[in-house]
Amino acid sequence: MSLAPPITSDPLLFDKLLEPIAAPLDELDHQPLSQAASKLKFAIFIRVLLFRIFNQVRSLRNLTLDLKSSPSAKPLRLPSLGLSTLHDAFVRYPSCWVISLVQSVAPHLAQLPKLSVLGQLWCVDSSFWPVVRQLGWLAHQGLKGVRLHLAFSLNTMCSVAFFLTCDHSPTTNERAMLMALVQAGVTYVLDRGYISLPACRELVDRGAYFVVRARNNQRWRVLADIEIAASEVFNHLSGISDQVVQLRSDANCTVLRLVCFSCGKHRFCLLTNRFDLRTHEIVLLYAWRWQVELLFRAWKHTLGGLHLINLSEEGIATQFQMLVLAAILWALLQQKTDKLLADSGRREESSKTSSKSESVTAQLSQVFRASWRLLRRSLRVLANCLAQPFSVYVKERYELRI
Predict the structure, then answer these.
(1) Is the CATH number of domain 111-293 3.90.350.10?
(2) Digit-coded pLDDT (tens) for 35-44
(3) Which residues pair with residue 117 across a beta bridge?
(4) Taking phi first (over 0 means left), then psi (-120 to 50 degrees means alpha), and beta for anything else, what does residue 296 get?
(5) Which tens digits make up the pLDDT trace of 259-318?
(6) 109 neighbors 331 (Cβ within 8 angstroms)
(7) In whole angstroms, what is the distance from residue 132 CA to residue 124 CA?
(8) Which of 113, 149, 173, 391 is at a distance of 20 to 30 A from 226, taking alpha carbons?
(9) Running DSSP on this structure, what letter comes out for residue 236?
(10) Model-level pTM?
């Protein structure tokens, strides 16, 4: 099935959204596997899945209904499809094809300049994905869902890699998945569920860095104090200390850095092997870890990722990769739109001042108040304009101050 007509100088918003993957998508569409599909080629399959995500269609039946009756489907060149045809596509097309699309567009994401001086920063965490309908291979194993292990780049505000596991004991697999994601030179920001002496030792041996919250029962020996430079960050905190330590249970006597502070009634102790950063930068790195939690929430609720429409192993993997692809395409579109508005003088680059009613974490994360964020209000405008010219979408964003 042809994807004509070609994109014009003022394309539909949906075509503009998919513009970054047009070339690799066309290449995959000419693979023999796609050519053999008489009803649904790969390029159309991807367009349908992206249409479903951005329109927040919650079920496969609703998707087939929208393809037949939605006023947006026809101008977007989306065909009417049956349930069996869509299910067959999830089995037919390997998830690695979607991965290749993600890899082709991820390098185009702009980096947050304020973070580039701190190096590559990845938050690693996992989240349980419940499956409402217990069918097939999951039910046979007595499982109620899958666990997504995610590496999230703070520099680009986008996922870097992820693994899916089906397990009853997430803690063991969390550490194993962390090691599978490790790259030299990257700083990993972790919650205390990931901490163990072997894990810290392996990260050091493999040339990686970490900032991780220490467990309450860990003990250490203080070797020296590190001078703490003044910073506005400390206006929100108390009881701040910065020390060089060795963990008492570490037979290798690894030298680490320990930054402690209190926020309200909570005490935080952060272990790291980054001795080049200032005290407040270590605090910020851990505060920014919350961004991965916001991404999980955005994927589950804003993009409707909790609603899986195919429960085969390959189908579940494809749907998670589609969430990654949709998030990247959305971010690229917002960055492009913001640049157009800034170049035309209709939007000034300015940072919003934090509100006193915001949490401390939110106030310390002002750097992320940019077009990288996946917000419901922005998604609603995007959904309403999918079948409209791109210029209409730009105008709507300007008038609504989004």
Answers:
(1) yes
(2) 888 889 999 9
(3) none
(4) alpha
(5) 999 998 899 999 999 999 999 999 999 999 988 998 898 888 888 888 889 888 889 899
(6) yes
(7) 26
(8) 113
(9) G
(10) 0.84
